[in-house]
Description:
The protein is α/β, with parallel strands linked by helices. The chain has nine helices and eight strands. The strands form two sheets. Strands 2-1-3-4 form a four-stranded parallel beta sheet, with helices on both faces. Strands 6-5-7-8 form a four-stranded parallel beta sheet, sandwiched between helices. The protein starts with a strand and ends in a 6-residue tail after the last helix.
Amino acid sequence: MARILVINPNSTEAVTDGIDAALEPFRMSGAPKIDCTTLAEGPPGIQSQRDVDRVTLPLCRLIEREDNRSDAFVIACFSDPGLHAARESTNHPVIGISAAGIATALNLGNLVGIIAILPTSLARHWRYFRSMGLTDRIAGDRAIDMPVVALTDEERTFARMREVGQALRDEDGADVLVMGCAGMARYRTRLEQALGMPIVDPTQAAVGMAISAVQLGYRTH
């Protein structure tokens, strides 16, 4: 059976558990097997450029170890850490959730809003958006101001996500939102119902692309 490995590059198991639960709709007869794993060497949350750079080598080593057992990889962090180096570590598709989430959102709306975790994430996000040539399609990027490890506080996290999502919709003009952290996966359906607009979980978006790549037999080099 074909296999997709979804890698949480931070070391917080609760984030991996939330990702795993959010991917349940993709587990169906005839589809590739989807496994989720945690990068033990990673920080509790990837919240700075230093965190992004720190996980690149252990992430590549993990992909190399799993290469013979996997047909595609998903890097489940909105900073897409180590993406290009990871792609040099395998000839199977490696998909970053940020690029996948934004690509999905662009097909659901005209202006995309990003719900980030911390204010310090915003400059890093905008560098990425500029590199993709998409700044004209990003309505706004606002932070809930909570670290990754705090996202398990469901009522507080949801309240902040709803507040920030409303601002992105009503003040910035976004008509589709992307959740800017894999640790937010559990909140997508509830937030979509509360705001009445499309909400993209970028890990779900990336896994959907990975399934297509595996089913069509794509190789990268």
